[in-house]
Design brief:
With 92 residues, the chain is mainly β. Helices cover 14% and strands 46% of the residues. It has three helices and six strands, in the order βααββαβββ. It has a six-stranded antiparallel β-sheet, with no helix packed on it. β4 and β5 (82-86) form a beta hairpin. The longest helix is centred in the first third of the chain and has 5 residues, at 25-29.
Length: 92
């Protein structure tokens, strides 16, 4: 077990989601008549998962749902080092 622990990583992801600025049910019922013209406000949703380093080159194995819709991915190693993803590749 001690040999495996350094290979385990935490994976932090975030993505932009768009939500209506006004969520009042009265306002939302107007969509029926006027369509979807309400402005949407971008927000960030964050998620946390885990993975394991499977090669000396640093390839990480994780579940697809952990990273599937992520705009940003950051990996935290056991030693506290954090590595940010850029274009699907991690950079330190």
């Amino acid at each position: 077990m001690r040999k495996a622990v350094p290979a385990v990583v935490n994976i932090f992801t975030s993505k932009e989601i768009k939500t209506p600025r006004i969520r009042s049910s009265t306002i939302l019922c107007f969509r029926h008549f006027f369509g979807d013209r309400l402005e949407e406000e971008p927000q960030r949703a964050a998620s946390l998962g885990s993975g394991v380093i499977v090669s000396p080159k640093g390839y990480i194995l994780t579940n697809h749902h952990v990273v599937e819709a992520a705009d940003e991915i950051e990996v935290a190693l056991i030693d506290g080092q954090e590595i940010e993803s850029q274009g699907g590749r991690l950079r330190s």
